[in-house]
């Protein structure tokens, strides 16, 4: 009810910033004119725009960097975040992705290490602090400069009011992010959710383009978008497409393009593509890591130069948005209603043209969220993801060589924990509630199912879908068998964790499980020593859901699952 919010005062900004933002949305023209002193606004913007941060020089020409903005669409959420920064209101960023986005990169060599304070997302965060918070006033520091304070506190000064929450997990894709990570984002305070999951979308999209549209990567990404866009804080959702020198001869029909289809469907997810800025240069040099050392030796993970370039792309994008917002604020303070007039209700005519009833009805009922691109692919809040300590707690019995341990990434030094079985016959028993806290397997559950309305394809009525997260790799990995050993029932599944893709990644295989409060699944390492010289299997996550969201396909992580013996 906007009429109740037209009397907001400047005190609202300090005491109740969320109500203040509602005031901006409801009564922005009159509010800025009446409540924000024009001279104070001029002084604030003058202070910001004259800071050294705005003279940031990118590695590549500015016009090349700006090509990275692939899709803009409705960026009102991003502008709202920029407005908060310009007005000095606290801002919360959250970041999800794979190893390209992790907190630091330790290689064991000083010349190739990338500390916490010079990763691309740290540079972007530091630039925001230098540009908009007291940390940047009379400070000539470059956002690329190493900073001990940032390395310890993730801030360059105590007065910063811009928080960065990094949730990136190496070796994971949007499948893992949607199932296990997005729930950790503070949905009531986050202002921007940055997603970087293109790197770990497997290259099978190139081999099977006809099937890429319906791949699990797309469906999981769509559910991730829907969860993010429905968060109460209405965050800006920005998808960053990373790029590597393995793609130098391939501009189109890679994961960027298939992910873009999902973003285009929603229209208010901004897309930033590194490919757009670097492809011509990469192809000219043939991806020579010596000539342009933007990557580590694997051609995938970024060197310091690569982090500088990725940060330039983010800074360039946000500078453009912030400058637009500052211009709009100044114009609104001078000429109310010109730059930020809220749209009025749709009339029966538009410039004398009679509008069809169907169009008027559509506009009247539009709530900002279209139906899923993939029919029935709704975000589902029922269920749980068990990783780390929660996964350890679910272990009912461990024997024969299974133990809680970790692998260390050769490229990044990151420890990746899970239950690792290093010999044939090793068993791991995981106990969990497959009723999903009573949603399944009871009279009330049956009523809940009816209340869901039309069930999309893939919903297993009365049963749970369990996803076992495991390490898939191209070497030093074997097979395992999973089966229900007590409480619940399910079909046995044998999984081969070896694939042809030259990467190691956490992925999932699905099982349909009957509901039981104490369901136990037993995982047994199979003997592949003669075949591969090793019998090894790693379990790193367990997801329990009330609806099917994954089925075998010939794309990506499930490619080898077609040959599973049940």
Question: If you had to describe this structure to a student in words, what would you say it looks like?
Answer:
The chain is of the alpha+beta class. The chain is globular and about 75 Å long. The chain is built from 18 helices and 19 strands. The chain is 33% helix and 19% strand. It has a six-stranded mixed β-sheet, sandwiched between helices. Strand 11 and strand 12 form a beta hairpin. The termini are far apart.
Structure characteristics:
alpha+beta; disordered C terminus; 19% strand; 566 residues; 18 helices; disordered N terminus; six-stranded mixed beta sheet
Most strands sheet: 6 strands, mixed
Report the span from N to C terminus.
57 Å
Q: Estimate the mean pLDDT confidence.
A: 82
Structural class: alpha+beta
């Amino acid at each position: 009810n906007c009429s109740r919010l037209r009397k907001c005062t400047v005190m609202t900004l300090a005491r109740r910033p969320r109500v203040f933002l509602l005031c901006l949305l409801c009564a922005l023209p009159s509010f800025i004119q009446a409540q924000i002193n024009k001279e104070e606004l001029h002084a604030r913007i003058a202070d910001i725009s004259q800071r050294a941060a705005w003279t940031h020089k990118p590695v590549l020409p500015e016009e090349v960097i700006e090509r990275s903005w692939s899709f803009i669409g409705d960026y009102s959420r991003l502008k709202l975040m920029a407005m908060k920064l310009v007005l000095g209101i606290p801002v919360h960023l959250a970041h999800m992705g794979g190893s390209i986005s992790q907190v630091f990169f330790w290689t064991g060599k000083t010349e190739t290490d990338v500390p916490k304070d010079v990763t691309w997302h740290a540079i972007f965060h530091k630039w925001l602090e230098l540009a908009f918070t007291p940390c940047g006033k009379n400070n000539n520091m470059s956002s690329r400069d190493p900073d001990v304070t940032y390395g310890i506190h993730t801030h360059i000064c105590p007065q910063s009011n811009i928080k960065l929450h990094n949730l990136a997990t190496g070796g994971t894709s949007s499948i893992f992010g949607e199932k296990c990570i997005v729930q950790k984002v503070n949905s009531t305070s986050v202002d921007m959710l940055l997603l970087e999951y293109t790197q770990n979308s497997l290259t099978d999209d190139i081999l099977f383009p006809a099937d890429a549209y319906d791949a699990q990567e797309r469906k999981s990404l769509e559910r991730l978008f829907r969860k993010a866009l429905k968060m109460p804080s209405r965050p800006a959702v920005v998808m960053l497409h990373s790029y590597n020198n393995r793609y130098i001869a391939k501009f189109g029909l890679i994961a960027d393009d298939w992910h873009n289809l999902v973003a285009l469907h929603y229209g208010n997810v901004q897309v930033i593509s590194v490919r757009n800025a670097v492809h011509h240069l990469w192809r000219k040099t043939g991806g020579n890591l010596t000539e342009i050392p933007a990557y580590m030796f694997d051609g995938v993970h970024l060197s310091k130069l690569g982090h500088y370039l990725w940060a330039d792309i983010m800074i360039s994008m946000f500078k453009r948005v912030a400058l637009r917002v500052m211009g709009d604020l100044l114009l609104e303070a001078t000429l109310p209603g010109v730059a930020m007039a809220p749209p009025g209700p749709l009339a029966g005519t538009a410039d004398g043209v009679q509008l069809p009833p169907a169009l008027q009805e559509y506009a009247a009922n539009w709530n900002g969220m279209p139906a899923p691109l993939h029919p029935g692919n709704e975000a589902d809040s029922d269920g749980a993801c068990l990783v780390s300590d929660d996964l350890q707690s679910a272990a009912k019995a461990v024997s024969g060589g299974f133990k809680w341990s970790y692998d260390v990434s050769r490229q990044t030094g990151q420890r990746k924990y899970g239950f690792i079985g290093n010999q044939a016959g090793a068993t791991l028993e995981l106990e969990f509630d497959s009723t999903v806290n009573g949603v399944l397997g009871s009279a009330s559950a049956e009523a809940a199912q009816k209340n869901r309305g039309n069930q999309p394809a893939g919903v297993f009525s009365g049963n749970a879908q369990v996803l076992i997260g495991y390490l898939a790799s191209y070497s030093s990995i074997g097979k395992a068998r999973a089966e229900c050993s007590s409480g619940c029932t399910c079909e046995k599944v044998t999984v081969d964790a070896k694939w042809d893709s030259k990467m190691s990644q956490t992925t999932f295989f699905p099982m349909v499980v009957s509901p039981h409060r104490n369901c136990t699944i037993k995982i047994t390492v199979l003997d592949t020593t003669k075949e591969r010289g090793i019998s090894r299997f790693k379990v790193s996550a367990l997801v329990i859901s009330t609806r099917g969201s994954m089925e075998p396909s010939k794309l990506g992580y499930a490619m080898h699952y077609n040959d599973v013996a049940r």
